[in-house]
């Protein structure tokens, strides 16, 4: 088995930990924020987990081992949610959410920009770059509209 598979599992566990933090902290704010955050993370995670599964297969894992290892990384999400709930102040959710939500949002933005911007800069076809930028703006618009309802 290649080391890249194990590195991917470690990164996926950390990623799932931050998702658990975000989901728990957003539910501490309100049910609406919690459901919106959960939906956004689910939409992100489905293609992400399929890609991670393919990375594990390419690294030498068989299908069953890759599936078990992917499932084990989900424990990171449970640990993140547990951490956010246990760190909640007796005074309310204000203190915990004051640092968890900006931390996780910043992490998500950083990862997205680190993955997207270099590809945009290397793209030879300006139409493809424009399409990607329009899709990013569409995603931001959808988030804004959902937050207003």
TrEMBL record:
Per UniProt, subcellular location reads as: Membrane
Q: Where are the transmembrane segments?
A: 71-90, 96-117, 129-148
Query: Mainly localized where?
Result: membrane
Tell me which GO cellular component terms the UniProt record holds: membrane
Show the GO MF annotations: zinc ion transmembrane transporter activity
A single GO BP term for this record reads: intracellular zinc ion homeostasis
The UniProt entry, under InterPro entries, shows:
ZIP
One Pfam annotation reads: Zip
Keywords, A to Z, come to:
Ion transport, Membrane, Transmembrane, Transmembrane helix, Transport, Zinc, Zinc transport
Q: Membrane topology for this entry?
A: Multi-pass membrane protein
- Reaction catalysed by this enzyme: Zn(2+)(in) = Zn(2+)(out)
Q: State the family named in the UniProt similarity comment for this chain.
A: Belongs to the ZIP transporter (TC 2.A.5) family.
Indicate what this protein is called per its UniProt record.
Answer: Zinc transporter ZIP13
What organism is the protein native to? Columbina picui (Picui ground-dove)
